[in-house]
Amino acid sequence: MDELVSLCKRRGFIFQSNDIYGGIKGLYDYGPMGVELKNNLKQTWWKSMIYERDDIEGLDASILSAPDVLKYSGHEDTFTDPLVDCRSCKSRWRIDNLDNKLCPNCKSGDLTEPRPFNLMFKTNIGPVEDGSSFAYLRPETCQQIFTNFKNILDSTSRTIPFGIAQIGKAFRNEITPRNFIFRVREFEQMELEFFVEPGTDEKWHDYWVKKRFNWWVDQGINSNNLELLDVDQDDLSHYSSKTVDIMYTFPHGKEELEGIANRTDFDLGSHTKNQKDFNISSKVSKNDKSTTKLAVQNFENKKWYMPFVIEPSAGVERGFLAILNESYKYDEENSRTVLSLKPHLSPIKAAVIPLKRNNEELVNKAKKIKNNLQKIGLGRIMLENTGNIGKNYRRHDEIGTPICITVDFETLENNTVTVRDRDTMEQQRLNQDDLKTYYENYFD
What we know:
Blueprint: H1 2-10, E1 14-16, E2 28-30, H2 32-51, E3 56-59, E4 64-65, H3 67-72, H4 75-78, E5 80-85, E6 92-94, E7 115-118, E8 121-124, E9 134-137, H5 143-147, H6 149-156, E10 162-171, E11 186-196, H7 201-218, E12 226-230, E13 242-250, E14 253-264, H8 266-270, E15 296-297, E16 304-305, E17 308-315, H9 316-327, E18 328-331, E19 336-339, E20 348-354, H10 360-374, E21 380-383, H11 389-399, E22 403-407, H12 409-414, E23 416-421, E24 427-431, H13 432-442
Parallel strand pairs: 3-10, 20-21, 20-22
Antiparallel strand pairs: 1-2, 4-9, 5-6, 5-7, 8-9, 10-11, 11-17, 12-13, 13-14, 14-17, 15-16, 18-19, 22-23, 23-24
Helix pairs in contact: 2-9
C-alpha cells in the first residue's frame, strides 16, 4: 500500500485533500492522472450498462435528499455504526473494527459501551438555521432511482425487466476512514437498479453476479484475486434478502469490491402510497407522505404488482484502487516501475515526444501528430516536450501510457516515427501516414 500511495502522489494520481492545511482524514483529491483513470473507469462502466444494452436507462439525480426519502427507506433508523470511545487516549472507533476489543491507538481495553452513531451528513436548507428545514447528503445513490422510477417508466415506455443506472457522489460520516481510498467519507458509486418480476429475482440475481464478476476481469483484474462471498443472513442490509459480494485481495487484505443485492420489493414498497393495495413481501413502514404508486401492471391479467430489484453496486474508489494494485509491477530486469493498465483505462493513451525540445521543426511535427491523434477521440494524447527520451519513457511506464511516439531527425527526412510499446519495450519505425490506423487498431 505504501508503494501505491507514493506513486499516486509522485505521479499526480491522488493527493490528500486540503493538504496545505493539514488535510482532512477520509477525503482525497484526484490529480491530472487520477481524474483521467477515474473517468475512464466510469465511462467504461457506463458504456457496458447503457450503450451496450437495450434494457437500461441512465439517471443523474440530486445529491441533497429530502429527510422523508431516507426516513421511509430505513436509513434514519438503520444507517448506523457501533461507536466506542477509548477512555485512555480519547480516540473513537467502530467496535466491529477492533481486535480483541483493544484500542488500535494505545492498545487499552478501557472502552466505553457501544452506542449507535448515524453515518449521514445533515445540511441546512434556507437562510435560517433553526433545525426545521434540512436535507441529508445522500448516503447512497440508489434512493433517487427509486423515487424517479415512475418518471422514467412514463417517459421511456419501458417494460419489466429493465434497469436504471447512475454514477454519482455519496457521503458517509465514517468513524474511522482507513486504508487509503478504500473507506472514505466522500466517494462515488456506480449503481444499477434492475427491476424484475417477483419470482424471477433469483435468476436475475445469479445473472448479474456472473456479469459483474466477468466485467472486473475484463478491466484487467486476475480472476484468481477475485472471490464470490455469500453474505450471512445476520450481516445482510435491512433491505436485502440475499447479497453476494465480489471480494478482491487489496493490499490490506481481502474485502468487498462490489456487492450484488436482491433488494426484493422493499424500496418501491417503502416509497409508494397505499401499500395495503399490494402484497408487499418485505416489511416496510406505512408511508403516509408519498403521492405516487410505484408499481407496474401485468398486461395479461391487468393486475398491479411491485417489481423486485437486483442491485449491482460498486465503489469507484475501490475499483480504482483494485485496478491500480493489479497493474502495479516492478520490472527488476529493466529497473522500472510499470502500470500495465488495460489501454482503455490508461490516463494517457499515447505520448508524442520530440527528440530535442528546442528544435522548432521537431516540436512542430510532434504537435501536428499529437493534434491529429487527439481528434480520433479515444482519450488524452500528451506532448512531452522535455527532450529527455529515457526519462520520458520511464515516466510514461509509471503512469501506464501504452505507447510512446518519438519524433526524431529521421522523421524530418523520411516521415517515419518510432513507436514504443509499454509492456514489451519493443520499438518499431512507422510511416506517419500509417500512424492513425496503427493507433486505432491498438485500442480496438
